[in-house]
Structures are given as structure tokens and as C-alpha cells.
Amino acid sequence: MITSSRFYHVTHNLFSIKKLGLKLTKMVNPKSKKQWYPAQSTDIDTLPSVKSLSKTKYEPGKRANRRVAMLNKVFMKQITDLMSTGTVSMDIVGRGIEISKVQVTPDYQSVRVFWVCKGTATDEETESVLKRTSGILRHELSTLSVMGQVPYITFVKDKQEANVVELDRILSVADYGDDYEQTQIGHLLKTEFTLNTRLSEEMKAKIKQLEAEIPLEDDPVPEMTHNVYGLDHDKILSRLVAARKKIRDAWDNVDVNGDNTVISYRSSAVKPVEDNLSNQREELADFLLKRQIMQNKLRKQMRNDREQLQIQYELLTDQTQDVDDESDVYSDDDEDDYLDYEEVKMPSIDRPDKLS
């Protein structure tokens, strides 16, 4: 008979005790698993925070930032060109509108064009004109195919420039008062001096006489210097012109001496006299004689070279013939020795197993 025993782990008893404890606690303190939280009252409307309002849904990356920067430059160029030469230029030209920068939003929904305001009453009129022209500008940009879909254009006052203009106005009022009117610099310069005091006729006559007696002396105009960055350009140019003139004169004064052409860089006062016919004949005869002597030397040298080649060829043929004869003699002797070796009979040697 086979008996089997079942072993229980220690944790079995612990688990059963824990389970009984949990059931006992549920019976003593009945609770649901879901926690209860007090509901918030819907009567109070919570206001949105500044961060939630300023946060954009689309946050561009590095590539998008590069594209936005490039679009800013392209829109800046195209919008300024259209405002100065396009169909809207009739309403804009003459108002002194200055575009400071163009900014495309990260979501590509609008283009903000910042313009510099002057801080005067004409700013409101200028703003209304720009608002009217925004739609026309967008249509013209779409015809140029700058983007697939051109964003809406909005003109915005450049607050930084406006604050600078307002600060200048306040400082001018503080310095000169409210009734100060700025004059142009050109009005301050006058051609003639005016004298508020009245002069007598005798004094005027004396002044005219003195002006007539004193001669007018004009200040001499200083000579223009050519030494820019320590280089005397006038001296360099004069050297170049002199060298060019020297070369030109040299080619004009070419002396032909025999076969060699000699270029003289000194201008000759008297032109060279042409050789007469007898001198030319003598030079021709000398040339022919020299040529004949040179040809004879060449023929003699060629003859000597040919003879040396013939001697070398004969020596080589004799050496090759001697070598062939020696090889024939050596081959005949070898054959005789081989035949003598075959005729000699080798003595037979008996094996040890046969002897036994």
C-alpha cells in the first residue's frame, strides 16, 4: 500500500488568517471602496489665467523658427514694394509711413506689420487708411505666390517707436515750452548778415570805400594728395607710364645686326644706315661658306659613326660564332661519355634472404 503525504507551506496559514481578518473588519465597519468627494459649486465662474490666454496651441520647433524668420524677410520686402509701387500706393505715398518690422505668427494665421507713428493727429487717419489697404495687399501677395495661403495682414503701431517719439516731445516741451516751434537747420544759415541798428549815410559810404580798398584774397586750394594708406599712387602711376613708354620706344628702335635681333632701350637720335649691296653679298657668301663647312663636318661624323657600327657588328658576329662552335664540341663529348657508361656492367649483389 502506497501512502502519500501533503505538505503545506507556512504562508498558507498566514494567508488564511489574513483573509479572515479582512472579512471581520468588513463586518465591523462596512464601507464602500469608492471615496466620496464634495462637488464644486457651479455658480462661481472661474476666470481664465494669464498663462492660459497667452499660451499658443502650436509651439514651433527649430525648423519652423527658421521658416518664420525667412517669411518675415520676404513679407517685409514684398509689402514695402507693394505699398510704394502697387495699386495702394496712391493712398499711402505722401503720408510718410515707415514700416519698422514684419512678424508672422507661429501658427501662420496672421501677419503683423508694425509701422512707426509720429504722435500727431494724423496717426488715426493713417491707421484707418492702412486697415483699408490690408485686404488689397493680401490679394496682391496671393497673386505673387509667396505662400500657399497668405495669412491675414494686420497693421500694428510700433509702441517702442511711439514711446520714443512721445519722450522726445515731452522733453522738447520741458526745455523750450509749449509754444516752441522747431525750425529747420537750413533756415539758420543766412547768406547776408543783418544789422538792426541804423547807420548814417557817411558811415555806409566809408564802409563801402574800405571794402573796395581791401583786396579779396582767395585761400589757395590745397593740392590733392595721393598717398593713401602710405602708398604714393602718383609715383607708382608715373613709373608705370614711363615703363610703358620705354617699351614702346624700344620696339620702335629695333637694330638688326646680322642674324641676331638686338632690341635697344635707348632712343637713337640717328636712324641706322642701310647696308649697301656689296656688304649684303659678302655676308651671304660668308653664310654659305659656313653652311658648307658645317655640312662637311656632319658628313664626316656620320661616316665615322657608320664605320664604328660596322666594326662593332663584326665583333659581335665573331663572338656568337665562337660560342656556337664550343657548344657543338661540348655536346659531342657528352654523347661519347654516356655511351661508355652504358657499356660498363654493374656487378650483381645478392640479397641476404637469397643467401639463406
Helix content: 55-70%
Question: How many strands, what sense, and barrel or not for the largest sheet?
Answer: 3 strands, mixed
- Supply the CATH superfamily name of the domain at 60-174: K homology (KH) domain
H/E topology pattern:
HHHHEEHEHHHEEHEEHH
Termini distance? Answer: 86 Å
CATH class of the domain at 60-174: Alpha Beta
pLDDT averaged residue by residue: 75
Alpha-beta classification: mainly alpha
Care to count the β-strands? 7
**Overall 3D geometry?**
flat
CATH topology of the domain at 60-174: GMP Synthetase, Chain A, domain 3
What strand line-up does the widest sheet have? 1-2-3
Unreliable stretches covering 5 or more consecutive residues: 256-260, 269-273
Tally the helices: what do you get?
A: 11
In terms of DSSP E residues, the strand content is 5-15%
InterPro entries: KH_dom-like_a/b (IPR015946), RbfA (IPR000238), RbfA_dom_sf (IPR023799), RBFA_mitochondrial (IPR039212)
Pfam families: RBFA
Protein name: Ribosome-binding factor A, mitochondrial
Region (Disordered): 317-356
